[in-house]
Automatic annotation (TrEMBL):
It comes from the Bacteria. Residues 1-20 form the signal peptide. Keywords: Signal. It comes from Nesterenkonia aurantiaca. Belongs to the phosphate/phosphite/phosphonate binding protein family. This is Phosphonate transport system substrate-binding protein. InterPro entries: PhnD (IPR005770). The lineage of its organism: Bacteria, Bacillati, Actinomycetota, Actinomycetes, Micrococcales. One of its GO terms (biological process) is transmembrane transport. SUPFAM superfamilies: Periplasmic binding protein-like II.
Amino acid sequence: MRKKTLSTFALASVLTLTMAGCVADEGETGGEEDAEAGDSEAAAITSVDEIVIALVPSNDVDNIVESAEPLADALSDALEGFPVRAEETQDYLGAITAMQTGDAQVVMSGPVGMIQAEEQADAVPITQSIRYGSDVYVTQWFTNDPDTYCMDEPVDVPDDEGNTMLFCNGTDEAEPGAVGEEALEMIEEGTTVSYVDQGSASGYYYPATQLNDLLGFAPGEGDIDEQFAGSHDNSVINVYNDSATIGTSFDDARQNVVAENPDVGEEVVVFAWAGPIPNDGIVVSSEFTEDEQAVLTEAWLAVAEDEDGLAALDEVYEIEGMVEADEEALDGARQVYNDFGDE
């Protein structure tokens, strides 16, 4: 099964915290009750005076900045006008630090970032993203040296615009999971690998764990030359520009740079996968009460149901929907995070 980009939020209704107060008794107009209900909804969050969303750059930093305000507005609308603003952070660590210090109350992050926020900032996972109908995704390994790492002839699976996108070792049609591990075993000590960020699930934790399991190359121990590109797009460009022989990203980050680099799908060939990985999601501060956490969950689900809200989610992280957080799925990410680097 091919997924074209990244990694889900569906089904919810608009926030209705006090609908009972909006219903008039025995045919009364209910105008006074309606006003009281609106006041109650607006006051549903009382632990903070303002909600700050911390956004972690995944692709284009400028795009995150431009999309931040519409996203904050969408959540504010779902919370009946409660003040919300969004701030971009430099990386995953910055987002978690912001929550630790109280500078952010909501973090949108990949699964490992969600677990880090949970463990380091006492955050609570509330939702996960849906993309291409799935709540899981994979790391894609790619190379500019298919003669070495492709065990078969690369296959062209054009994107929606007809651009060539080459895959080998079965990555063109596999179900989400580990694929092409025989090719990964060809990686030699000292090989330069372009990872994404030290806090990225698909860009570092999962693929580095996979190499450790297959070859005993422990993360950060110098067995390979680990380079961190800072974003998924940049990791693709590193391999495209021959700054590294191999790289990692979400599947399929090449589509984010093909407009500027039309031959990237030919020069950068996907040859292996790691995963499956639970999709990114949202965690909230534990300073919110359980009732407030439920309010925020319903509000985010409502954002994903609203046309403008979904457009804002798509602009920020290419999110197509939302569901409530799947604790069982996140347990896998917890294990990867807690075991990271163990031999």
